[in-house]
Amino acid sequence: MRSAMSFRRDTLTKPIFTLARGVLPAMSDTEREALEAGDVWWDADLFTGNPDWSKLLKVPQARLTAEEQAFLKGPVDELCAMLDEWKIFWEWRDLPQDVWHFVKREKFFGMIIPKEFGGLGFSPYAHSEVVRKISTRSIAAAVTVMVPNSLGPGELLMRFGTREQQQRWLPRLADGRDIPCFGLTSPEAGSDAASMVDTGIIRKGEFEGREVLGLRLNWHKRYITLGPVATLLGLAFKAYDPDHLVGDQEELGITVALIPTNLPGVEIGHRHLPSMQVFQNGPNRGRDVFIPLDYVIGGEARLGQGWKMLMTALAAGRGISLPSLSAAGAAFAARTTGAYARIREQFGISISKFEGVEEPLARIVATAYQLDAARRLTCSALNAGIHPAVISGIMKLHATERMRVAIDDAMDIHGGKAVIDGPQNYLGNLHRAVPVGITVEGANILTRNLIVFGQGAIRAHPHLLDEMNALADTDRERGLAAFDKAFWKHVGHSFRTLFRAFGRSWTFSAFASAPDTGDATPFYRQLSRYSAAFALCADMALLTLGGALKRKEMLSARFGDILSELYLLSAVLKRWQDEGRQKEDFAALEWCMATGFRTIENRLAEILANLPNRFVAIFLKLVVQPFGARVLGPSDRVVHQCASLVLEPSAARERLTPDLAEVDDNGGFARLERAFKLVAGTEAIAKRMRAAHVRDWKEAVTKGVITQAEGEQVAAARDAVTEVIEVDDFAPEALSPIYKKSSDVHQFFQELGEQRAAS
């Protein structure tokens, strides 16, 4: 046996090993550290081509503790009641002082900080639920709360800080004595952290009256959320040791440190205005700022480890904050757009009856269902201590992109109601905020084209990372032995995947593995088929293109889209199962599956049409897509049923849009909810009036079609609808300082007209 393995290694594997080492592209330190950060999870199962569905269904549902529920029903509801989004972004351009005091006092900034350090010690799911609820009331407040609990000093200190650092800083962050921010992006380096020019030179210097070994820092950062009000800045920079004060290496690499913003040389800039959003955001600089080495997070031992630390932290934070805000936005769009379509009439009928409205409304509804399913599943992993790096990237990318589509659809259906700004417009500011989510925490273009598949193919593939590590081993003999073992496992895996993909494609997945989940069982079979097709095509692309695949960004993006769909559709299936297979929700499940299958089949067809090796492409087409891309998307029946989920008060509507921030005020959202309930409650009365061809309720009472009490109900409903469809208008002097009063406007234009006539 041993001699046979030696023969295989020396005769077959060695030439392949030599060739592969010659073509393996160089990997930068930042790329390697990004790859090594975080964990793999369900994405690894999807990459096998044969996912174990029982493993997915056994994942515990994310749930709140009694303490976390009390926080949502107590301080979170109180905070929502204090928020007036119109005044925040139009009048004050900031959260009012009483809100700042409240979020500090109630420890909103310390949700993830353990109780031993004075924080709330909440789970990732509780963090997600808090952000989700606040997001439906105020984007500015949601961002303010989520940033200290996401990527920043708190998370980094908890994971990498020394005990002394944790004891010093975490209590201050938890109770709001310190407001944190994190400085990563600079004018020279956005997504390309390797281009960072911010520096820290190891020197001896004086700090607080004593000479210590430390860092002299110079930096310029921008787009820093909470930067203008922060008292503690987490800073990423490149550390250098030209005098070899801590070791033999001169360039130490990206490092992260804590910078109190009151230190000499720290310059806090003015505020940015990101897409007219007024959460605190701005630039800052440091000129010859000196800090001791124990301000480096993790101390001297962590010099040069900053990028890996950041990527590890991001693997968790990126899966919580923006996906929570996006899920909230989609749910809010579903609830408000369904209600508005139900009460708004054109041509004498509710616009919800128009198929042209049903189609985008169904898309909003299904998007809300899917995003919350994926949010919950991802939080389940995070609750279990898993930090799925690839899945977090998928979540950030697709949550924000799909929210963008949902909000655009909502704007289209609302028409002028959502276009005219004012206190009664409950969608306008959310629409303006969408580009911010698309851009931050990794630009979506970069994430889609380079990260999801580029990182996923290496981390989640069962053998590829082992092969790459073996090829990069400086000990050639040890590397050859490891490569021999991994490579032939990979070959066996590829052949199994080939036969699996062939069988499932030609039989339309009739015999693919699937759990017994009632009406959803065929969907599992289809996903098993697509997983095998994806795994086979990915292997063939990696085999034929090698390192060149890294530069084929459009191919990489298409593979990433398939992997993303496999994960998101898995989440939808799990949600439907976890919620007891609700029949009313099946239309949303069907819409998601049909749309996802269409995307997968189209992306497979695009990959096969553009794969450079045409022989391999033709072969793969015969194996994985012999009959072409056949899924057309959701049927008209499914679209109609999906849209109808939010057109009447029902348990399904509540499951789809749970626990939004409904404040009993006279705001636009509250008015809409009241009108919706009144219109739905008088539908039977209105139906009798239509049958009698009577529109005026008083006439209907006179003719005996309805009673006086019923007529008054109809009148109340119509008054409520009128109140909703009204839009805000403003006196000229309220909008422009040019005019002191309305008459000034008329006088100005009258004089202008006279001047033109005279000329």
UniProtKB/TrEMBL annotation:
Annotated ranges, domain Acyl-CoA dehydrogenase/oxidase C-terminal: 304-451
Reply yes or no: does the keyword NAD apply: no
So what does this thing catalyse? a medium-chain 2,3-saturated fatty acyl-CoA + oxidized [electron-transfer flavoprotein] + H(+) = a medium-chain (2E)-enoyl-CoA + reduced [electron-transfer flavoprotein]; a long-chain 2,3-saturated fatty acyl-CoA + oxidized [electron-transfer flavoprotein] + H(+) = a long-chain (2E)-enoyl-CoA + reduced [electron-transfer flavoprotein]
Cofactor dependence:
FAD
Q: Which residues form the Acyl-CoA dehydrogenase C-terminal bacterial-type domain?
A: 458-730
Enzyme class, top EC level, equals oxidoreductase
Biological or metabolic pathway of the protein: Lipid metabolism; fatty acid beta-oxidation
Q: Does the keyword rRNA-binding apply?
A: no
Annotated SUPFAM superfamilies: Acyl-CoA dehydrogenase C-terminal domain-like (SSF47203), Acyl-CoA dehydrogenase NM domain-like (SSF56645)
Ranges for domain Acyl-CoA oxidase/dehydrogenase middle come to: 181-272
Which residues lie in coiled coils? none
Stated EC number for the protein is 1.3.8.7, 1.3.8.8
Q: Which residues form the Acyl-CoA dehydrogenase/oxidase N-terminal domain?
A: 83-176
Entry keyword set: FAD, Flavoprotein, Oxidoreductase
The similarity annotation says: Belongs to the acyl-CoA dehydrogenase family.
Give the protein name, as stated in the record.
Acyl-coenzyme A dehydrogenase
Tell me which species this is from: Bradyrhizobium zhanjiangense
